[in-house]
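User: Hello! I'm new to structural biology and keep hearing that structure can be predicted from sequence alone. Could you demonstrate with 4-diphosphocytidyl-2-C-methyl-D-erythritol kinase? Please show me the input and the output so I can see what each looks like.

Assistant: Of course. The first part below is the input, the amino acid sequence of 4-diphosphocytidyl-2-C-methyl-D-erythritol kinase. The second part is the output, the predicted structure written as tokens.
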Amino acid sequence: MRVPAKVNLQLAVGPGREDGFHDLVNVFHAVSLFDEVTVTTAPSRPETGLTELTVGGGLGSHLSRVPLDGTNLTARAAALLAERTGRGHPVTIHMDKHIPVAGGMAGGSADAAAALVACDRLWGCDLPRRTLLDYAAELGSDVPFALVGATAVGRGRGEILEPMAGPGRFHWVFALSPHGLSTAKVFAEYDRLRPDAPEPRADAALAAALAAADPVALGRALSNDLQGAALSLLPELERTLETGTEAGALGALVSGSGPTCAFLVGGGAEERSVIDRREADVVAALEASGLCERVVTAYGDVPGATVL
Ligand SMILES: C[C@](O)(CO)[C@H](O)COP(=O)(O)OP(=O)(O)OC[C@H]1O[C@@H](n2ccc(N)nc2=O)[C@H](O)[C@@H]1O
Ligand SMILES: Nc1ncnc2c1ncn2[C@@H]1O[C@H](COP(=O)(O)OP(=O)(O)OP(=O)(O)O)[C@@H](O)[C@H]1O
């Protein structure tokens, strides 16, 4: 399975709910940074139970943050499906990771979506898409989007999805941080900084920019209510955002709960050479800054979890 990362084009966060979550208006955009998840029948029952997990990929220190026990979201996806269908049998799950870990790009959620679809096939469950989406929502707020991909607005805690059609392709640069941020801690910091947060509202300017495939308007409309909380926990991100903006990015923001920073460098009807030049300038400035562990480029949107 191939499954994409996401960046949030708008993340409006309401007040804390009684269940510990926050109501959101969450505009997800799937980008061409993919994890590959391979699920195969285990030759014998793994010591660890239903699933045996392995991880690879060129993400350096990030890989040590991936748990290889039952808390991994892929193991939780397999366990949930086995419990609900009674059809589970032992599997080996290999994650070839390219999505930063604890980076605000929903890498774990992407892997969970991939594992859900792969086990559904391997075990011959053939569940309806609606049921897979419900199970995905139980696993995490970002997991349903990883199944559908493209560009979509998520309401509730982000799991109630509605597609947002747009004709354009957009190009992005991502600055990966050497640090990880815990999503729960970033939401808690948001509550501390914004105890009287208003109800979240969709941004009409963002919807118009997407509908017109206008990269300049999209760059101006990007917004993330969690950015202040992420910057409060990792102040150096401010300089990362400034570096990409000064180098010519059309828009810059922290992706989701961070700490990955996203820079829009073009798209829509712009000439490819214009986009390439802007992209090269932003990449060079970020690499020279010494602020990030790695700099990668990607485009969006792309489809959700896909069987290879
Ligand atoms: C920040 C985002 O990535 C933006 O897309 C998501 O809202 C987070 O989605 P996720 O990682 O799938 O998060 P979950 O695993 O569902 O929740 C992790 C924790 O984040 C907080 N959380 C998450 C989603 C939400 N709407 N409100 C929250 O307050 C809660 O403290 C929760 O315990
Ligand atoms: N398959 C997985 N890949 C990466 N991390 C995982 C996985 N399963 C569980 N985790 C745990 O989840 C934590 C968050 O990882 P993830 O990469 O999903 O963060 P994130 O991109 O910030 O999430 P989100 O954007 O959805 O808030 C990691 O620190 C790790 O402990």
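User: So the tokens describe the shape?

Assistant: Right, they're a compact way of writing down the 3D structure. Reading them back into a model, for example: The chain is about 35% helix and 25% strand.
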